[in-house]
Amino acid sequence: MLRSLPLPGLLALAFHVSAQNAPFLVVDQFGYRPLDPKVAVIRDPQAGFNAAESYTPGPLIEVRELPGRTVVWSGAPAAWNGGQTDPMSGDRGWWVDFSAVQQPGTYELHDPSTGATSDAFVVSEQVYAPILRSAMRMFYHNRCGTGKPAAFAGSAWADGLDFAGPLQDTQCRFIGDPLNAALEKDLSGGWYDAGDYNKYVTFAHGAVHDLLMAYEEYPQAFGDDSGIPESGNGVPDILDEVKWELDWLLKMVGPDGSVHIKMGSQNFSENVLAPPSANADPRFYGPVCSSATLAAAAMFAHAARVFGGVPAYAMFAQQLQAQAEACWTQVQPQLMNNTLDTDCDDGSIVAGDADRSVPEQWALAFETAVHLFRATGDADHAQFIADHYQDMTPLVNDLWYTYDLPVIDALLDYAALTDADPLVAADIRASFTTDATNNWLFYYGGVEDDLYRAYMPAWSYHWGSNIPKAGYGLLNLLLVSNAILPANDDLYREYALAALNGFHGVNPLTLVYLSNMGALGAERSCDQIYHTWFADGTDWDDAQSSLHGPPPGYVPGGPNAAFSVTSLSPPAGQPEQKSYLDFNDGWPNNSWEVSEPAIYSQAAYVRLLAHFVDLSLTTGVQEPPAERTLVLWPNPAGDRAWVEPAGEGPWQVTLRDAAGRSLRGMQLQVAGPIDLGGLAAGCYVVEVVGQRAERVSGRLIVQ
Predict the structure, then answer these.
(1) What gap in Å lies between CA 153 and CA 364, rounded to an integer?
(2) 3-state DSSP call for residue 97?
């Protein structure tokens, strides 16, 4: 289903045209919370594919309320860094701080001297709530071993039961002895790891960890209404989604507590059809490995604590705790004898190498020990922590990298315990304090060091750069939550917000790094992602030109300054932040190096975004997510739009303005049009209420 791009130059040209239509006044395309800092970037490209563009702002920039375009604020733009060019974006620019605009509503920035405007954006306490729900739904779309009916997936992304055929996941055979039926295992369930349909235990660790942390840190961000089959069961949907993965992980555990490293296809030509249910090739599981056993132990131990706080899952939490201890016991001889497996994955199951290095496995062991100590208070776990905490990478050189985030969380988690060794706890906090004070790499509070306001080192713009992009934001928030340098808390929070704004379009490409988000307010989101289901040439290929496009809310890998196809520019040969292309071609153009989503990059973004969502607050226009159960098209619309709720009516449809006022209403039994005649251009909300009082809504732009 994948094809190579025959004329790379044409694709680059198409991208140039799209980029040249992007605004020079750059904002978060979804918007801002009322009391948060709000800083727009005015861009003037100097290097890279769009260097021929040029813009100089006038003396005042206005904020205009929509739809009437009433000026509510004006202020002077401030040149960034004395007018210097930012080397990682290739742009010079200006900042416009309009934080004083706090009244909920829909706005745009306007330069009266040139007529230039920004994208429309919303100011609302709940502006990010529908974005979080959409991002969480990526995990539902990536579920394996289940049908995805239209009632939950939406009609565009509905599919039948997948990977349940002969010798597939329910009859999975060992890759080392594929003819031995006695070794068949039921390994159904879990999530597709990324853009392929394979499933990896070690790769799951980062995703499960960040989702559990997101819920522990920000439970107020997650509801029970995101439209997955478990919605409405009284448990936050994020936990139901994590349980789907944990149920599969439990199947990967052998009787002795050892864990198989991964499962999937035996070559690149098998199981490559779209949709997933079309695939019939066999699937295989790999050997047991210490890396997988330790990753599973860490996930089970962490999840046992979180699920233990949910009465409905009390028995499940006990199962997780018992399995964590079994895995921990099983791997102890290899830890103590320095015989950890580091070359377990020989590539017989394609594609990713799921092995972990010795230091990485010791980090997993440390995490597990912290989780088990919290659960049991066992002296052996306390001793393990005391013996090995100084060997963890953050403490070796007092450098706390985002790449070590799970073990950083474990270190800080332990240091906050009342029964922690006080000397160990003090040592951990002192190391973090030293790193934040030195700030050798400028990512703590690094707002001023990047034109687009969320500095990260140039070497972090690699394959999968959106993981550290979120991770640096999370590190800054950990400084706040652990009171490391409280005097700088506002700056650390501002950096985290700037990192989030970067995902939402405040970047030199003015691109929202989420797929197909037009219905939720983005003007330029990712139309294509590298995913076998949503591959080039399929009905799900492109949000603009194919029948369906990919589902909303997938986070792609991100800019990659080391993109390997040097003849294709962009992404190659660009400043770091411009090293991206919105495309999904396979070999030989290797779009997976920039546009492939993955459960771990998704989870990192979800955790960052969750900090800025509180469902208990109701200020402004509240917009529940609608991409699953409500399709609005075209969007933007002219005199009318088509309203398509999922399921059976009757439905009460209400059109509201940005202040929440009802403008007109109608009843639908099935899909139908809504009249928009006579409405001023601007942002509106279509609210749909079903016969059981279920309520969904979506943002509609009227031109």
Answers:
(1) 35
(2) strand
Backbone torsions φ then ψ of 79, nearest 5 degrees: -65, 135
Provide the 8-state DSSP code for 143. Answer: B
- Please give the Cα distance from 209 to 366 (Å, whole number): 14
Report pLDDT digits (tens) over 466-513: 999 999 999 999 999 999 999 999 999 999 999 999 999 999 999 999
Which residues of 359-407 form beta strands (DSSP E)? none
Across 549-578, b (16+ Cβ under 10 Å) vs e yields bbbbbbbbbbbbbebebeebbbbbebbbbb
Give 352-373 pLDDT, tens digit per residue: 999 999 999 999 999 999 999 9
* Mean pLDDT taken over the chain: 93
φ/ψ (deg, to 5) at 72: -110, -10
**CATH code assigned to 630-702:** 2.60.40.3080
Amino acid, single-letter form, for residue 645: P
Write out the two tokens for 519: 């219905």
Within 10 A of 174 (CB to CB), how many other CB atoms are there?
A: 18
Instruction: Please enumerate in sequence order all residues whose Cβ is within 8 A of that of 81, keeping only pairs 6 or more positions apart, or say none.
Output: 448, 451
60 close to 78: Cβ distance less than 8 angstroms: no
**What are the CA-CA distances from residue 512 to residues 31, 131, 318, 523, 630 (Å)?**
12, 11, 41, 8, 21
Q: Cis peptide leading into 556, omega within 30 of 0?
A: no
- Nearest-angstrom CA–CA distance, 169 and 280: 11
* 329 vs 10: which has the higher pLDDT: 329
Which carries the bigger pLDDT value, residue 452 or residue 677?
Answer: 452
Burial class of residue 64 in the structure, from the number of CB atoms within 10 Å of its CB (0-12 exposed, 13-18 middle, 19+ buried) = buried
The proportion of the chain whose per-residue pLDDT surpasses 90, expressed as a percent, equals 84
Strands (DSSP E) found in 375-524:
512-515
Domain boundaries, the chain: 630-702
Scan for tokens 């660790």, then name that residue: 205
The torsion of the CA quartet 407, 410, 412, 417, rounded to 10 degrees, works out to -160
Question: CA-CA distance, 39 to 62, in Å (whole number)?
Answer: 13
> Contact at 8 Å (CB) between 251 and 285?
no
pLDDT value at residue 664 = 86
How far is 600 from 239, CA to CA, in rounded Å?
16
d(CA 524, CA 340): 46
pTM above 0.70, yes or no: yes
Whole-angstrom distance, CA of residue 193 vs CA of residue 596: 11
Give me the residues paired with residue 219 across strands: none
SS (H, E, C) 586-651: CCCCCCHHHHCCCHHHHHHHHHHHHCCCCCCCCCCCCCCCCCCCEEEECCCECCEEEEEECCCCCE
Using one digit for the tens of pLDDT, what is the confidence trace for 182-201? Answer: 999 999 999 999 999 999 99
Model pLDDT, residue 644? 78
Q: Could you give the C-alpha distances from 205 to 285, 358, 568, in angstroms and in order?
A: 18, 16, 33
- In angstroms, the CA 425 to CA 218 distance is 24
Running DSSP on this structure, what letter comes out for residue 122?
A: E
- Say how far apart CA 421 and CA 381 lie, in whole Å: 12
Instruction: Convert the pLDDT of each residue in 588-644 to its tens digit.
Output: 999 999 999 999 999 999 999 999 999 988 544 444 333 345 777 777 777 788 787
